[in-house]
Specification:
- With about 160 residues, this protein is mainly α.
- It has two domains: about 100 residues, no CATH class; about 60 residues.
- The chain is built from seven helices and three strands; from the N terminus they run E-H-H-E-E-H-H-H-H-H.
- The protein has a three-stranded mixed beta sheet.
- A hairpin with a 2-residue loop joins strand 2 and strand 3.
- The longest helix is centred in the last third of the chain and has 24 residues.
- About 25% of the residues are buried.
C-alpha cells in the first residue's frame, strides 16, 4: 500500500472542517477499493499497489487475462457502493456509485467502456460525458450549490489530458 503525503491533507482537512460527508466519502471510497480487491483476490489475481492520495484511491494490478474477469474486477468497487446505498440509504454511496459508473476514463465506467467498446467510441463517449459533467458542475456552482462537482470534473479533465 502506498500512502501519498497528500492523503494526510485530506484527513487533516476533514478533521479541521468536521465535515461528516467528507468522512463518509473517505470511508466508502476505501470500501469501494476493497470491493475491487476482493474480486481480484477471488479470481486468484494479485494486486500490485493500493494508492491513497489527495486525488483519491486507486488499486493497481497486472492486466487481467480476459475481459469478463476484468469486468468483474471493475464492477467490484461500484457494487459495494450500490449495496451500501440500498442498505443504508446513504447519499454518499449513491454519489460514489453514480460517479464511478460514468463512462469517463479513469473511472470504473470509463475503463469498462474502453474494455467493451471500440477505442474511438469509448474516447468520444468519455469526452462528451465529461463535457456534460463539467457544464453541470458549472451550473451547480452558479446556482450556489458548491464547487465539488466542478472540481471533480476538472480533475477528471486533467487526468485525461495526462493520458493523451
Amino acid at each position: 500500500m502506498r500512502l501519498d503525503y497528500s492523503f494526510f491533507w485530506i484527513l487533516t482537512f476533514a478533521a479541521w472542517a468536521q465535515n461528516e460527508l467528507l468522512w463518509q466519502v473517505l470511508l466508502f471510497s476505501v470500501l469501494h477499493e476493497c470491493g475491487h480487491l476482493t474480486v481480484l483476490c477471488a479470481l486468484g489475481l494479485q494486486p500490485r499497489q493500493l494508492r491513497l492520495s489527495f486525488y483519491g484511491m486507486a488499486l493497481r494490478y497486472d492486466r487481467v487475462p480476459d475481459r469478463r474477469r476484468e469486468t468483474a474486477v471493475l464492477f467490484g468497487g461500484p457494487a459495494v457502493n450500490l449495496i451500501l446505498w440500498v442498505l443504508l440509504r446513504n447519499p454518499a454511496n449513491g454519489a460514489l456509485f453514480l460517479l464511478n459508473m460514468l463512462p469517463i476514463f479513469p473511472l470504473d465506467g470509463g475503463r469498462l467502456a474502453a474494455l467493451w467498446l471500440p477505442h474511438r467510441l469509448a474516447a468520444v463517449l468519455s469526452t462528451l460525458t465529461l463535457a456534460v459533467l463539467t457544464g453541470l458542475g458549472g451550473y451547480v456552482l452558479y446556482r450556489g450549490g458548491g464547487v465539488s462537482l466542478l472540481g471533480i470534473s476538472l480533475y477528471l479533465m486533467l487526468s485525461n489530458l495526462r493520458s493523451v
